[in-house]
Hints:
Layout: H1 2-26, E1 33-34, E2 46-51, E3 56-59, E4 71-72, E5 79-84, E6 94-99, E7 103-108, E8 111-116, H2 118-121, E9 125-132, E10 135-141, E11 156-162, E12 167-173, E13 183-190, E14 195-203, E15 206-216, E16 232-236, H3 239-246, E17 249-250, H4 256-261, E18 271-277, E19 284-287, E20 297-303, E21 307-312, E22 316-321, E23 335-338, E24 346-354, E25 357-366, E26 369-379, H5 381-389
Parallel strand pairs: 1-23, 17-19, 18-20
Antiparallel strand pairs: 2-3, 2-26, 4-26, 5-6, 6-7, 7-8, 9-10, 10-11, 11-12, 13-14, 14-15, 15-16, 18-19, 20-21, 21-22, 22-23, 24-25, 25-26
Amino acid sequence: MQKRIQCILTILCVLTLFVSCKNKQKTSGSEIIEISDAGDKINKPHQWYAFSQTGYSQVTIPQAAPSVPAKPWTEAIRISSSSASSNEDGKTQEAFMIVNRLGIMSMKGSSMELNRDTTLFAERTAGNLVFVNGTPIYSLYKSTFFNNNLQDNQHPFLVQFDPSSKISYPLVNCDNLTDNKACEVTDFIWDGRTWFCCIKSEENSKTEFSYIKWTSNIPLLNQSPAVASENITISESDADTFRSEKVPLPFTRAPDRIKKLLNGMASKVPFNLTILTAGGTSPRHYSNVSKENEEALMAYGVVSESWSGIMFQDGTLYVEGALDGRRILRGGKAVALRLPRLPYGFNYTSFIISGSTLYAAWEESDFYMTSRSGFIKVDLDATLYKSIQS
């Protein structure tokens, strides 16, 4: 374990040195833009927030958040997925974060709101946020390995969130996909037309997995559990097909905008990268690991209409393009920003930008257990744009 930690720290040091040197070369001597918790506590361009059993509240730093019992990640209150609507019309993107066991956070610029849902979220694991015709869609399932408290016969799978009413509506239940009543859809992939599902069933103390793919015969947003069984076409699939959709692709096959963001880094630092498209389908995964069992950094990226960005687990963020209603950053070149350093045992996990406000998730974790969690909110006008001007 100690060797593993040392390897990760070494990679982080290499990344930090490389980023600093690379940024000096590309920005005429200016270093990476640092956001720090030190100094003026009143006029900082960022605020920390931590989740509780009932919502969230502002804290000074993540480690100052009240301690909470560690739970498996499927059961813990944490940001499990995030994305934003497409901004093809030039308006500010509305962003969303799925907060496991609580509800959905919606953000528009610097305004944010937690839409709690005690009915659907209380005993279920939520995540896998995608968009269908601009509407947020996510999935629910019960992890019976860690949680056997939910005894009702309802097994919702696919749910839409209505940004206007702030209410979630089930679209497809598990029993719309299979005759087995004791099953859960534990994972899915949506490619824009077809839904690939992994179904876990438990009967007589025996656990089995099966795989299907299906398409909706009517507009998906018109579906409901009452009619879905009659309005979807299902065909059998298999584990290999499902895994082939999940397996990381070589980083050389990543979108050109993403490869440009990390120009030069791919030959120096091993990393695994999850990329999603704002307002789009399930994310794709890419790997820049060349050696077996090589320690790699985790990174999360977003490709939007006017900007794209990548954040590493240490809080190093690369952004290119133009944020909503703002000019193009540094002539189209990547700008590097480092979020405040987190203490040992804490990591940044995902991010999204709405308007000129960044929301980045953080959590305290040990292997598959998660305890404290929350997010940092950053004013990018006061960091990226102001720093570039100066």
